Amino acid sequence: MRKLGILLAAGAIVGFGEATYAQDNSEEKPDNITVAYSEDGRYFTEDDIPTYNIAEDGTIDWLTYSGFRRYHSECHVCHGPEGEGSTYAPALKNSALEMDYYDFYDVVTNGRKVISNSENSVMPAFGDNPNVMCYLDDIYVYLKARGTEAVPRGRPRKKEAKSDVIREDENACLG
């Protein structure tokens, strides 16, 4: 079992599902999607990066479902519903696929400013916000699932049950 500190620092989600693509199934799957193993209701890639799992009947893993909820409580105001982006901030469903997991984690934790002649964007730091940090892997895998169109827009209909380990880690993180 991964300790909560590792969960927050390195992430924790594992899976056996295959990503589906809404447009062209001949596209090559991004390397940060394929599930290599699972641990206590979390799914991971071969490189120990959190990912999502979707069963054949459409049931999604708990963290992807939780990510939907957390994203819409903390992120959608700037980044738009379902990670689609807005005129104010980029589409995070693309960032979750294109950015390295650790870079994604760093930007959310520490924020980022990009100021140039053609761009002026500011991402505030959320490192002190337990409503984001305790669920950052959840948000990340939800956005990955949205980025591949494996999870459609709207509230996911079927979800796995929350594992006891996920519940314990959540309680420990929130205090």
TrEMBL record:
<dbReference type="GO" id="GO:0046872">
    <property type="term" value="F:metal ion binding"/>
</dbReference>
<keyword id="KW-0479">Metal-binding</keyword>
<feature type="domain" description="Cytochrome c">
    <location>
        <begin position="66"/>
        <end position="142"/>
    </location>
</feature>
<dbReference type="GO" id="GO:0020037">
    <property type="term" value="F:heme binding"/>
</dbReference>
<dbReference type="Pfam" id="PF13442">
    <property type="entry name" value="Cytochrome_CBB3"/>
</dbReference>
<dbReference type="GO" id="GO:0009055">
    <property type="term" value="F:electron transfer activity"/>
</dbReference>
<dbReference type="InterPro" id="IPR009056">
    <property type="entry name" value="Cyt_c-like_dom"/>
</dbReference>
<dbReference type="InterPro" id="IPR036909">
    <property type="entry name" value="Cyt_c-like_dom_sf"/>
</dbReference>
<keyword id="KW-0349">Heme</keyword>
<dbReference type="InterPro" id="IPR022411">
    <property type="entry name" value="C-typ_cyt_methanol_metab-rel"/>
</dbReference>
<keyword id="KW-0408">Iron</keyword>
<protein>
    <submittedName>
        <fullName>Cytochrome c-553I</fullName>
    </submittedName>
</protein>
